[in-house]
Amino acid sequence: MTGPVVVGLDGSAASVTAAWWAASEAAERHLPVVLLHSWTTQPLDVPIAQEAHNKKRYGHDVLQRTAAELLHRHGDLALTTELVSDPAAQALLSHGENAAMLVLGSRGHGSVASFLLGSISLHVLGLAQCPAVAVRAGAPAVEAGWEHPAAADRDEVVVGVQELGPDAEPLLEFAFTAAELSGTRVCAVRALPVSALVTHPQAFAAQQADRDREAEERTRLAAVLIPWREKFPDVPVVEHVAMGSAAQVLLAASAHSRLTVIGRRRHPSRRTWKLGPVAHAALHHVPCPVAVVPHD
Q1: Same structural domain for residues 65 and 163?
Q2: Helix or strand or coil: residue 66?
Q3: What is the distance between the alpha carbons of residues 251 and 158, in angstroms, rounded to a whole number?
Q4: Edge-to-edge strand list for the sheet holding 237-243
């Protein structure tokens, strides 16, 4: 993975928490950090006048204050700041063409927002050419790790594997790399839809079929993970296959994860973006950082 870790910073608690997480990831990966602030796209509750001069001064102060905090924590971190006039989403997507990852703040529980409107962050998450990570304000794995080396009860990276072919490779690469760097395990999650309800005497046969299908899918998932176990021999791996909707199974598996990784198909047009129901559920409800990784 090359390129910088680019953080969208607007001065909100969520964006500052995102910067903490980004700095730790960049330090572990030996990557530079870029703190990016769009002075034309600021939170509605910023208590400043609307003149351009004051907006720029606010942005400069936010960047310098956060940079000083990160450098105090990571003294050898290569860090730069950028105060831009381009709209936040446009600036981040432009950086995403050459970045290792983009990092955004998330208010969580009902809205995903980093800058002026939640739709801006969703737009970035849906169109970024590189992995984009949403970090919730007050994320326990992040804030505990800021004070201590790691959050003791956040000991795995969860990755949703709904595609078992080449589409899963970017997700698994991201998840295994993150787990290796943090010294945690990977939990590969796959959901299977429950058979439609049937009446007796067909119910027993349907339940048996579900159990057989679950065992079969667990075997298929284990086969997909073989080359990743070989590439990352020091990373423990567990397979989690469960009946239920993909969103429900992923949310349950992510209750105590330090990072959840999900996939998103690339879109041929930069004007068209879509995040599916699983991505929306994870971004709104998973308590840890959520990485959205594009794939073909």
Answers
A1: no
A2: helix
A3: 10
A4: 79-84, 33-38, 5-8, 101-106, 132-136, 290-295, 259-265, 156-160, 185-192, 237-243
Please name every residue paired with 265 in a beta bridge, in sequence order, or none if there are none: 295
**Domain encompassing residue 214:** 153-296
Write down the pTM of the prediction.
0.86
Two tokens, residue 189: 């999650």
How far from 99 is each of 65, 126, 215, CA to CA, in Å? 23, 16, 39
pLDDT along the chain (296 residues), means of 10: 90 88 93 94 58 82 95 93 93 95 74 44 88 83 50 80 88 96 94 64 60 84 95 96 92 92 78 77 88 91
Report the CATH number that the domain containing residue 7 is assigned in CATH. 3.40.50.620
* Residue that finishes a domain, picked among 138, 167, 195: 138
Q: Strands 132-136 and 290-295: what pairing?
A: antiparallel
Residues 173 and 125 grouped into a single domain: no
Question: Domain for residue 117, yes or no?
Answer: yes
Q: Given 138, 166, 186, which residue is the final one in a domain?
A: 138
- Is residue 143, in this structure, part of any structural domain at all? no
Which residues have CB under 8 Å from 218's CB, separation 6+? 190, 239, 241
